[in-house]
């Protein structure tokens, strides 16, 4: 079984996640690491491969050259190959352009199962994967908190606001896993050192169908709205009442 | 006038609050607002939408749409947007809505801005307001083409029933072959009694060292239950073994942004602050008037939590009971 | 003032060096084999790695013998630079000798050459300029952020063929038949009580032909090795604690500043040796720090809070006015100098360099160029061992090379200055002045050092003078820890070994001493002792506790601060 995991390399939180005021895009000069959410997808792919006894796990991503460092982390965990779509023309792509390029790269792989992490730590929300799946014209399952593959189909336990839905889709399929699905493993030292030697491929925009014009842009960055005055009250026996009135005023009770 | 369509999600026989909120907001933007309801019982709930500002509601009540799955809904919406020429489609965040919005963006090659908390008219178009980087910065985002897709953060708008009624129109449903491959095998509804998890909770009541000893967490739990919220804890009390790590809020615990965060006996060191500072409303109770938490609380009460919290719990219960 | 009648040494930590030594246990197919293993991606370790890269280039035949992974560097921090902290005004000599013609110092990202300097003696409101002591002259020296320099050196090391393994702590030295065979790395994914969590991954044995320990101050394996192989010198090592901040400032600072005097007390009974530094970092940043010997006796002495107090001096306020604190950190500095050096720097399969063995010139406040030079020499000795095949004698050539180097000569010249200050500021200055003037010939004998933990504690109510944090100029410890970038995983085992029931005075001394608020005085047990509460995830691994009755061991790899500008 071939499993492709679509990941995003994001700036490591401590080395300064910030928006570049000039370009209004994420400042990518800091070290890049695998997004936490995507680690769950990589882990799930590895578990499925281990359960099946054989198969291949390919990591697919789009980003600057440096992103390969983050993909190597997935290779260190046990993935077999990494494919990075990296091209100046694609820098600053929005969801439409990114989805197309990733779909192009995934199309080349023709995996039985494509996994995504449900959310990207630096801003892709929960939407990119659905756009990619749409381009691939495959059945989808989202928010999977449990996953099994059997007899040519994938069954997932999908978390919704109301409870759990058990969903099944025939392979090939696209699944987005939630962070409740597993605990991503720490790579072993041998894994880390072996990662460098695993195949790592870089694709250009042309390889994946060209670049698209952005359909959305960021116009400006502003500081968040001020918190508003903070009120202070000394409790003289009526503190609880004061809180209740405040909550009522804010329509929270 | 920009033609706006609002995706109205329903569960059972009720339109979702979030969707109605977005509908109310759309109504404020002006013009004729349309809604679309998809799934079992769509026609029945469609009428409700009129009270919240929709002038026309499209209902797709096909049995193939019974299961709450996103892909068939993408087919319905794509056809509707193309047939009616909608320029703007609005969604309220939900698991389903996010799936639909994302796929629709690809289907229509339409720009999607998500995690928005507001939208304003800008000439013939719109500008969306979007918090970024743990809400430390707000970006103004826009669309360079139509149709425009917008997905709003949970709880961004209140649902305002302004009265009125909507014309309900049925929809013919045509589905792509790959849209019907996924099937719903079974459903399990979750009972309310367990309370929301800390990540999803609209209300969190958190306790810190000021509680004095682990038994006092009962005060926090009672208040949380009365408010229908989850219980949080600071790193100090988790380290001391008073509460489990899963409830830890802060830099090395969970990041939360509920509508209401009540901090009980918490001093508010920065490690805690960064985990909850984007909560909508912060109320704190602490006997130390110099506690840093007061600097970023909307309401701070200086006093003895052991007296204030039980009283507050009582007051909340009676108010809710009435 | 009252005497506490307790010395930290009376309550030694529950730790023995033997815990950090082990025989290999992994079977050959599980262990990792490397040619030369370097522990620590600091200036010493990276210099060694870079030199090895150069040697591999010049002599590919020997390079072959090192195997698939010829050079590996282990770094316990999140990335090279994450645990590096210093002033730093660096003497470029070490870098120049390392790179030779291949590079100019000017090509390395830095904050430029020193353009001027002043030394001040402070009283609470006045700064009196004094003549710069000859040992502190800084012409032609370059201001660096050591953290940034570390990141840059790591890139060069990788270009030269070294493999850098970050987030990897070396927990045990692998020794068999009296020979060092490599190290064992730490486990990942253990819970608070040591239990294996879902993502548990055991550490690995790393086998190497030569192991170079470049762990920096309070090196975990270095300490164990010194004991195991009987390498300790005539005198115990002593340390100072440095706490510093990096600020964005409104006006550029035009010179390097050092101060002595206030807020430290010169009286002999206090043993408060040290001073402060303010270094410009380009036109819009600077770093300000306080360094105090850990032989200080006052229970309430807190270097963190002394730094806050320092900033309230009118001269300092002026410099910082309109600015913003952007980073904070702390680290110990070995201060014993020449007389505390080990008697040997090698053992079978093992070489020791850098701060870990105390190669620091205290009066000049310089150690980075020594670290780099010692790393370079260690690399050459390791290479000889592998080229000639007779490693034992080859490794001993490292000692010879070290003794012939400028490192040795300079350390010897200044060898008695620090000890002079044990007799108080004025006596110490005089003695230091004489030692300088005579280039170390006077006093002729080596003055002994006394262990920091042997100093009896005293109580003076010092804490009353620390400023209350205002959140703009002065700050509390938790805010400082936050700015170190520390976001250590909470549910992991406690890596700090310290007795948990001690007299109140000692518990308070630890609580004050620690710049990261790891220790707090807990409830009294009614029998004259109190509980010591420990919050290990605050720890920035400065090492102060090891000097004063406890023992720091490395936590899970990747924990601790994430310095970028220190």
Give an overview of the whole structure.
The complex is a heterotrimer of chains A (253), B (322) and C (566). In chain A, a hairpin with a 3-residue loop joins strand 8 (153-159) and strand 9 (163-170). A nine-stranded mixed sheet of chain A has the order 9-8-7-10-6-1-4-5-11, sandwiched between helices. A two-stranded antiparallel sheet of chain A has the order 2-3. Chain A is of the alpha/beta class. The mean pLDDT of chain A is 88. Chain A has a single domain (2-208), classed as 3-Layer(aba) Sandwich (Rossmann fold), CATH 3.40.50.620. Helix content of chain A is 28%, strand content 30%. In chain A, helix 3 crosses helix 4 (128-136). By secondary structure, chain B is an alpha/beta fold. Chain B folds into two domains: 4-180, HUPs (Rossmann fold, 3-Layer(aba) Sandwich), CATH 3.40.50.620; 195-321, Rossmann fold, CATH 3.40.50. Helix content of chain B is 29%, strand content 28%. Chain B has helices at 17-29, 42-51, 70-84, 95-108, 217-227, 235-239, 270-276, 305-321; strands spanning 4-8, 10-11, 14-15, 33-38, 56-60, 88-92, 111-116, 118-122, 125-132, 137-143, 148-152, 167-170, 183-189, 203-207, 230-233, 260-264, 281-286, 299-302. Chain B has a seven-stranded parallel sheet, with helices on both faces. In chain B, a hairpin with a 2-residue loop joins strand 2 (10-11) and strand 3 (14-15). The longest helix of chain B has 17 residues, at 305-321. In chain C, strand 13 and strand 14 form a beta hairpin. Chain C is an alpha/beta fold and 566 residues long. Helices cover 26% and strands 23% of the residues of chain C. A seven-stranded mixed sheet of chain C has the order 8-7-18-19-20-17-21. A six-stranded mixed sheet of chain C has the order 10-5-4-16-23-22. A five-stranded mixed sheet of chain C has the order 2-11-12-15-3, covered by helices on one side. The longest helix of chain C has 21 residues, at 368-388. The interface between A and B is large, with 79 and 86 residues. Strand 9 (163-170) of chain A pairs antiparallel with strand 13 of chain B, so a sheet runs across the interface.
